[in-house]
């Protein structure tokens, strides 16, 4: 099976990302050697692309989001007979923060 080569604009974009990240590291870390800078470039780009598997991405499922919003909201019947949704932002934010804090604690346990 023949290998397909990437279009030149994709190759150029990849090379530009590498060059820009390397230039950035030369500015913020002027004392590091070329091999360490190259490893850092790879690590930074992997993080940006979501390819670094060491960092687990915490996500709330659709069902969890719905449950959290329902628990911290209510319908307030107004004088026109309509029922605008009232969301208790502080309590919702606290629950979301607690959700991610629990994820952090469980990850640190391993």
- Model regions low in confidence, pLDDT < 50 over at least 5 residues: none
Assembly status = single chain
The dominant shape is elongated
Count of the separate structural domains: 2
Q: What separation lies between the terminal Cα atoms? A: 43 Å
Strand-pairing-aware structural class? mainly alpha
Percentage of residues in DSSP E strands: 5-15%
Radius of gyration (CA) equals 23 Å
Number of DSSP E strands: 2
| Helical content (DSSP H or I, runs of 4+) | 55-70%
Count of individual helical segments: 4
Order of helices and strands: HHHEEH
Largest sheet: 2 strands, antiparallel
Q: Give the strand order, joined by hyphens, for the main sheet.
A: 1-2
The averaged pLDDT comes out at 80
In short:
60% of the residues lie in helices and 5% in strands. It has helices at 8-28, 34-48, 62-71, 89-108; strands at residues 73-75, 85-87. Strands 1-2 form a two-stranded antiparallel sheet.
Characterization of this structure:
The chain is mostly helical and 110 residues long. It has 2 domains: 10-48; 62-108, no CATH class. It is 60% helix and 5% strand. The chain has helices at residues 8-28, 34-48, 62-71, 89-108, and strands at residues 73-75, 85-87. It has a two-stranded antiparallel sheet with strand order 1-2. The chain is elongated and about 65 Å long. It starts with 7 loop residues before the first helix and ends with a helix.
């Amino acid at each position: 099976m023949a290998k397909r080569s990437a279009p030149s604009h994709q190759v150029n974009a990849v090379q530009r990302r590498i060059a820009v990240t390397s230039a950035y590291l030369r500015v913020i870390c002027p004392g590091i050697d070329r091999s360490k800078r190259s490893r850092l470039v790879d690590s930074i780009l992997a993080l940006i692309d979501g390819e670094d598997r060491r960092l687990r991405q915490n996500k709330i499922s659709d069902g969890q989001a719905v449950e959290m919003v329902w628990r911290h909201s209510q319908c307030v019947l107004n004088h026109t007979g309509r029922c605008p949704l009232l969301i208790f932002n502080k309590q919702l934010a606290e629950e979301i923060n607690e959700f991610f804090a629990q994820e952090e604690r469980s990850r640190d346990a391993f």
